[in-house]
Structure formats: structure tokens, C-alpha cells
Amino acid sequence: MYRELSFDHDDYSIDADNESDYDLDDYALSDPNFSDLNFDDYSIDEPDIILDVPFVPTDEKVVHAMLDLAEVTSKDILYDLGCGDGRIVVAAAMHRNTRGIGIDMDPARIADAMEYAGNAGVEYMVNFFEGDLLEADFSQATVVTLYLLDLVNVELRPRLLDELRPGTRIVSHAFDMGDWKPDKHHSFGSVNLFKWIVPAKVAGTWEWQATSGETYRVELKQKYQKITGNAWIDDQPAQLKNALLNGDMLELVIKSETNSRPKGFVMRCEGKQLVAADDDQQATPAIKITIP
User: Fold this and answer.
1) What torsion do the CA atoms of 134, 137, 140, 144 make, to the nearest 10 degrees?
2) Which of 193, 195, 209, 217 is the most buried (most CB within 10 A)?
3) Integer distance in angstroms from the first to the last C-alpha of the chain?
């Protein structure tokens, strides 16, 4: 039911503020309501298939910009949701030695993608299958690429947060995720690329021992990757000076009311524990507790 949406123009230019090294000449995204696009050439014969978003091939420069933003390597498994003719998956295999999966509901596009992969000589590294994005299994992905409408992204958002492992990178061309703010946003003229890192679920009350002997406790509230909360040291109120969450890594800076020097803890979320990623300060894993 969902299609990759892309715009194929020859040249485009980078914003002056953009940090990318891409040399892109006069590229402009089509009118946001797509009224200026003619999709007649992409109609299909099957009357029972209705595509919510028409397919137009992604410009190759944008493909490589998406792979760069996602920092795709040979260790990744890339899933392209709404893969169209498969060019993102094939480019990742050809240029990054990355295994990839493309999912699309249009059988004609799946056939095109398989043929394209075969012609490129990477058919042994990729796979394409027909499926509904709201039902297909993409839980093994370490990178997910999207070129869908914003409403479709928002509809997919719960699955991306619940089913992908913390640290998985998501890159979307043109469309965001509603109130889930991106970790990075790059602009190429009128073309926007967004990147999110799936956050671990760390909301709740956690307790652990420091190497100095004190018992630390934090009560964390979470909205996506944004963390707020309160802290205690040996049951005495303390200040949670900073809380940063990046994938499965959580950094907390806590200051005692009686000590001028704050103490920092770097932890990795592993199941129901926050284990020390920096052994200097944390003596025991943080365990989620229930306060009576």
C-alpha cells in the first residue's frame, strides 16, 4: 500500500549552511503537494492494486547522500521500505558491500528490482519481496531507508520504535516523523534528509552502586530520545544535571547537594539492566526497581 516517492532531476545545489561535501548543482524539490508531477508514465495494469504514493525513481546523488547520512558499512543489514526499483539496496551492495532487503507492495517494482540487482551483479547480496509495510518484518535491520509521505512515516513510527533494536539508524528522504525530532537534518537546496537513531527504552526508576560506595537512584522520564528526571544519592535528593540517550548508550551527570563536583556515568542498555560502559564510576549494573 505504500510506495517510495522520489524526484529525478539532473542537478542540484547545497545550502550554504549544509555540512556535506556533496557538489550538487541546481536541484529543487517539486511542489510539496506534487501538483506539478506527471505520474501517467508510472501507471500499472493491475486494476486491483492502488498505490497510495506514486513511484518515481530516486536521484542517484540523493541515494548516496542517504547512505552517507546513515553511515552504512559492510557490517549493516539495510532494509528499504517502499524500495521501488531497488536502487538504494543495490547501491549499498555495490558501493558499501552491504546486505540489503527491499520491501514493496507492487509486484512490478519487485520484478524491476530483482532484474536491476542481477544486472549489477549483486543479486547474491540482496533480496526483494512483496509486502505491506505495516505487516512486513524488518526487525533485523541495522539501517532503514524511507521515501514515503509524512503521514505514512508517522503510521510506521510505532513499529520502528518497538521492533527495531536500539541504535538502528533510520534515514528518510523529504518527510519527517511528526513529533519525533530527528537526530540529524541535512538540507540540499529544497531537498531534506532526516536521520533518527532508535532509542533504548529507559523510562523508570533505576538504582546502582558507585565505586565510591554511594547508592545512586534516578527516576527517568522519556519522550523518544529526550530524557528528563530526578536523582538521589544515598536516599538524599541530588541534581540530575544532564541526561543524554543515543541508541543504547545513556550518559547521566549527577551532582550531590553537598559536593561541588558532579559525577558522570556512561551506561549501555542491556535488557533490564544498564551496565557500565565506563568502569571508573559504576560498581554494579543499574537495576530497574519499583518504589513502594
Assistant:
1) -30
2) 193
3) 48
Residue 26 falls inside a structural domain = no
Residue 26 identity (one-letter amino acid): D
Same structural domain for residues 191 and 227? Answer: no
Tell which of 166, 197, 228 closes a domain: 197
- Please report how many Cα atoms fall inside a 13 Å half-sphere around the Cα of residue 25, on the Cβ side: 3
Residue 3 lies in a domain: no
Residues 191 and 212 in one domain: no
pLDDT digits (tens, 9 = 90+) for 194-231: 999 999 999 999 999 999 999 999 999 999 999 999 99
pLDDT in the model for residue 187: 87
- Whether 90 and 178 map to the same domain: the answer is yes
Other CB atoms within 10 Å distance of the CB of residue 278: 12
Q: What is the pLDDT of residue 278?
A: 79
3-state DSSP call for residue 69? Answer: helix
Say if residue 85 is in the same domain as residue 184.
yes
The conformation of residue 222, written as its DSSP 8-state character, comes to: E
Range of the domain at 67: 40-197
pTM of the predicted protein model: 0.81
What is the rounded distance in angstroms from the CA atom of residue 138 to the CA atom of residue 196?
Answer: 16
Q: Are residues 141 and 284 in the same domain?
A: no
- Measured distance CA(129)–CA(127) in Å, rounded: 7
How would residue 188 be classed by pLDDT, with cut points 50, 70 and 90? confident
Q: In what order do the strands lie in the sheet with 143-146?
A: 126-130, 99-104, 77-81, 143-146, 169-173, 191-197, 184-188
Average pLDDT on 169-173 reads 97
Q: Is residue 31 part of a domain?
A: no
